[in-house]
Amino acid sequence: MPATTPESGADALARLYDLDLAEDPGDVELYRALARRTGGPVVELAVGTGRIAAALAGDGYEVVGVDIDAAMLARARARIGAAGAAGAAGAAGAAGGRGATASGRLDLVEGDLVDAPGNAGVTAGGPYRLAILGLNSILLLAGADRQRAALAAMANVLRPGGVAVVDAWQPSPADLVAFDGRLSLEWLRTDPETGLEVTKTVAAWFDPATRLVTLTTIFEEGAPGAAPARWTRVDALRLITVDELASFALAAGLEAEQLAGDHELGALEPGSDRVVLVARKP
After folding, report:
1. Quick check: 101 pLDDT over 90?
2. Are strands 97-100 and 212-222 parallel, antiparallel or unpaired?
3. How distant is the alpha carbon of residue 242 from its chain centre?
4. Which residue from 18, 27, 61, 144 has the highest number of Cβ atoms inside 10 Å of its Cβ?
5. Contact at 8 Å (CB) between 209 and 221?
C-alpha cells in the first residue's frame, strides 16, 4: 500500500474480507448452475466485493449488484478490472460503477438492499430471472422485519418465473454455547496484496431472546517482529430459522422449490450447518 495513500479502516476491512474468503466457501458453482437454468439478467443483493457477481458476468450474464458499503463496491470494481474489464464508465445509481467483462456486464449500485427496486439502476418487476442473497448476508439484517423485507425485495425485482436463492448459516447448539465472549483465533495468513501477516481473532455473544449474535472480529496485520495494525469490525447477526426463511418467502409471494442443506442442494437434515432456499416467483 503506497505510503502517500493511507488506507482507511473501511478499505482495510474490505480487503481483509477478501482474504477471509481466500478459502473458497464453494458456493459459486451453485449460482452458475441456477443462472444456466434461468438465464439472465441477474441481481445480487449484498454483492460485497463481487466474488459471485463477477463470476456470473464472466460467464456472459448481465448482472446488477447492490451493496450499502462503498469500500466493498470499490473492491468489486477492482475485481472487474483485474478480470480484464474493458473499462469503467461513470456512476450507476447513487454511487456505483459499470464494468464489462470479456463476455458479460456487471453494474454496481450503492444502496440498502431492502430498498430494491427503489435504488436507481434496479428495475421493478423484472427483467431479472435470478435474485441472489448469498453467504449469510441475510443475517446482517439484524431484525426479522428487515429479513422479511429482503425476501420481499427479491420478489419485487424478479420477473414471473424468476428464481430467488438465499444462503443462511445454521449454527449448532455447540456453536451457540461457545458464543460467550471468549476470544478464538481463526487463522493466520499472508495477504498477497501487502505481503504482511494477518491474524483473525473473533469473539461472539449470543442472546437467545432476540436470536442476535454480536460478533467482534479483530484483524492484526504486520511484518514479523513489527507492531501490527489492528482493524476491528463489530456485526449484529440475527439468526434465522428454516421455518422463518420459508415463511418470509411465502409472505413475499414466492413458492419454495427447495430447502437444501448445502451448496450442492443436498438434503436439509438435522445437523446441517446451513440452509439454502430456492424459491420461484409464480
Report:
1. no
2. unpaired
3. 19
4. 61
5. no
Locate 142 and state its grid cell: 439484524
CA 259, CA 167: separation in Å to the nearest integer? 10
- 17 pLDDT higher than 80: yes
Which letter, b or e, does each residue of 169-199 get, where b requires 16 or more Cβ atoms within 10 Å of its Cβ?
bbbeeeeeeebeeeeeeeeebebeebebbbb
Q: Are 55 and 102 in contact (CB under 8 A)?
A: no
What is the percent of the chain where pLDDT is above 70? 90
Residue 89 amino acid letter:
A
97-100 and 105-110 as β-strands: parallel, antiparallel, unpaired? antiparallel
**Residues 239/217, Cβ–Cβ less than 8 Å:** no
Amino acid at 100: A
- 8 in Cβ contact with 122 (< 8 Å): no
Residue 96 to residue 100: CA distance in whole angstroms: 14
What CA–CA distance (Å, rounded) separates 228 from 226?
6
Q: pLDDT tens digit string along 30-44?
A: 999 999 999 999 999
Separation CA 282–CA 233 (nearest Å): 40
pLDDT over threshold 60, residue 91: no
